[in-house]
From TrEMBL:
Keyword field: Membrane, Transmembrane, Transmembrane helix
Protein name: YIP1 family protein
Organism of this sequence: Halovivax cerinus
Record field: transmembrane: 26-45, 105-125, 137-158, 193-217, 224-241, 247-271
Length: 320
């Protein structure tokens, strides 16, 4: 029954999500499968790129003696017989560079899902309510987002194929830094095949989000369309951006923002209450405070913005 309704949600989301969203087990299963598929897809694409890189390049020997020490009496204390240059494999450099993209590819779908799940908390009138209401809305939104991420499997299946077609005629640079940068760039293909797959999967994802939000949260078409537009842009923008929008920023910053955004989004009411009560310690009168809805909503909006930045910094735009 659950499987049948989940499959129905992929083609008739407005009807399937009427009074229903997938349970935690289904959501966790989808998250694992989609994230794993994304990571494997990027690994295969990276292997295709690295296999096309051959040759070596001479670089300064990092273990050689300091300059000038081999001219005096102390020469015997240093490795003055070491060669001035050593050969480094361009293929290894390319493999290491593309290998660094795989963890981002595995994490980006989850970051995307929680970002999309957080939007209904704001647009469905739950932003200023208690944390219980926000968590319930987030849980339903995560169920919708998880199923909406399934069309991404089309992109993950097509990426290695598109990359293999591109690198077949690729002439790689002859320097270590150059081949690292160029190898990562090849992971984000262009061309009609990739554009078609990205567009189709993005439209499909947006349709699931639109139908799910409109039905499960009983919001107007305008609000549902807004969330659907975010879903489409965040999954399809890579086809229109140079290098897919790759940033390459330290992944730790992005992960911190994603985790902090989730906590802030779901715990804004408790945080606002406790922080103000702590400020009142030592003062006379009641220390019980009730935050205004607009104040709680402001905190949740800030948390969602942080979550969005985290998604961008883990290179979600490029690899989701």
């Amino acid at each position: 029954m659950v499987l049948k309704r989940s499959l129905r949600a992929l083609v008739l989301p407005h009807e399937a999500f009427d009074g229903w969203t997938p349970g935690p087990r289904v959501v966790v299963g989808i998250v694992v499968v989609v994230c794993l598929a994304s990571g494997v897809s990027m690994t295969l694409a990276g292997d295709a790129v690295a296999d096309e890189v051959e040759g070596t390049v001479a670089v300064d020997n990092p273990y050689g003696p300091p300059e000038g020490v081999c001219d005096g009496e102390r020469a015997s204390f240093y490795n003055c017989d070491a060669p001035e240059t050593v050969d480094r494999s361009l293929g290894t450099a390319a493999s290491n560079a593309v290998g660094g993209v795989t963890p981002r590819a595995a994490l980006a779908p989850f970051a995307w899902m929680v970002l999309i799940a957080g939007l209904p908390v704001l647009v469905a009138g739950r932003a200023g309510r208690g944390d219980g209401d926000a968590i319930a809305a987030f849980r339903d939104g995560l169920g919708i987002a998880a199923l909406a991420a399934v069309p991404g499997l089309l992109r993950y299946a097509a990426r290695p194929i598109a990359v293999e077609r591109v690198v077949a005629d690729w002439t790689h640079p002859g320097t270590l830094d150059g081949v690292r940068t160029a190898a990562v760039s090849q992971l984000f293909p262009d061309g009609s095949l990739w554009l078609a797959v990205v567009t189709v999967s993005g439209v499909w994802t947006a349709a699931i989000v639109y139908g799910g939000v409109a039905s499960a949260f009983d919001v107007g078409r305008g609000k549902a369309a807004l969330i659907a537009a975010v879903a489409f842009v965040s999954t399809a923008a890579s086809a229109a951006l140079a290098n897919g929008g790759w940033i390459g920023a330290p992944i730790g910053f992005g992960l911190l923002l994603v985790v902090g955004g989730i906590v802030g989004l779901l715990g804004a009411y408790t945080y606002s209450t406790v922080s103000k009560e702590l400020e009142l310690i030592g003062f006379g009168g009641s220390e019980t405070v009730t935050p205004e809805p607009w104040y709680v909503g402001l905190h949740r909006a800030g948390a969602l913005i942080g979550l969005a930045f985290g998604f961008v910094l883990v290179d979600g735009i490029a690899v989701v």
